[in-house]
Design a protein that fits this description.
This protein is α/β, with parallel strands linked by helices. It has a single domain, classed as 3-Layer(aba) Sandwich (Rossmann fold). Helix content is 46%, strand content 14%. The chain is built from twelve helices and seven strands. The strands form two sheets. The chain has a five-stranded parallel beta sheet, sandwiched between helices. A two-stranded antiparallel ribbon has the order 1-4. Strand 5, helix 11 and strand 6 form a beta-alpha-beta unit. Helix 3 packs across helix 8. 35% of the residues are buried.
Length: 277
């Protein structure tokens, strides 16, 4: 049994005192959650097929040294870290911004660190969404789709049995299938599933500028909440040992300036690295 399963199987003090009720510790299994989220996961797999076709290009597009050094430090350090890599605005697809995100995803795989990702630019450039045809998502819809995708990907890293202390509600997870799902509920589910996922996790969000609509105050607030959540989706659980490192590494990339990320930099939540033109 791997360490992630061990953490989720650790009994609470109440269960130690009342072992006869230990069978109640499990409410759902990973398979149940995955089955519910399958339609969302299929969209992600379509994206990854497209990304796989682009990975060869990455090796032919060297990163600037200061970008590469910061990425390696981000990927290999033991502490929680969030970075924003800002590339030039208006670059053709696939831009260096996109290729940088692909490089980071490949690096996470090489390091054998669980990784979730979302490539916003794929929605803009006409990547099919299954039977729904081409994407015509608004900024608001794109933000919700991104959160749903991250939730579905995290489900793949859940332990086989989900400990009730971090067990997400299946009824609420089902609500994510609705195209008009509530972004607040989606973020709550994201937190719950993250609490049962691996201790170390990489999260990559590409093309954040496509999520921004400064004319819509409510959306701007939701975007800031979401970016903050993604850069801080790790809540130490009471059964973890002191020497168990709990670290979420988040990398945002953008083609140009993003006001929501700039505010996070000013608040000290994100470290910004700019591509030199």
């Amino acid at each position: 049994m791997d360490q992630n399963n061990i953490n989720c199987l650790h009994p609470t003090p109440a269960e130690v005192m009342d072992p006869e009720n230990s069978f109640k510790r499990y409410l759902n299994s990973r398979r149940v959650v995955q089955d519910v989220l399958r339609p969302i996961l299929i969209r992600h797999l379509l994206d990854m097929d497209n990304i796989e076709n682009t990975i060869v290009t990455t090796s032919r597009s060297p990163l600037q040294d200061h970008i590469k050094n910061r990425i390696y430090d981000w990927a290999t350090s033991s502490h929680q870290d969030a970075i924003w890599i800002q590339g030039p605005h208006g670059a053709p697809y696939p831009s260096q911004n996109t290729l940088t995100a692909i490089f980071i995803k490949a690096l996470s795989k090489d390091l054998e660190i669980p990784c979730v990702s979302y490539f916003c630019s794929l929605r803009l450039h006409g990547v099919p969404l299954g039977q729904d045809g081409l994407s015509t998502l608004s900024c608001q819809e794109l933000l919700l789709e991104m959160v749903k995708s991250i939730v579905a990907q995290l489900a793949n890293f859940l332990p086989r049995l989900i400990f009730r202390g971090v067990d997400p509600s299946i009824a609420r997870i089902v609500s994510l299938i609705n195209p008009e799902a509530d972004i607040s509920v989606a973020l709550e589910i994201l937190r719950e599933i993250r609490n049962a996922a691996p201790l170390r996790l990489h999260c990559i969000i590409e093309g954040v500028q496509l999520l921004e609509d400064r004319s819509n105050l409510r959306h701007t607030q939701n975007l800031r909440r979401t970016l903050h959540e993604l850069s801080n989706i790790s809540t130490p659980m009471p059964w973890l040992l002191e020497d168990e490192a709990w670290a979420t590494k988040t990398c945002f990339t953008s083609g140009g300036y993003v006001d929501a990320l700039a505010q996070m930099v000013e608040d000290g939540h994100v470290d910004k690295v700019e591509v030199e033109e």
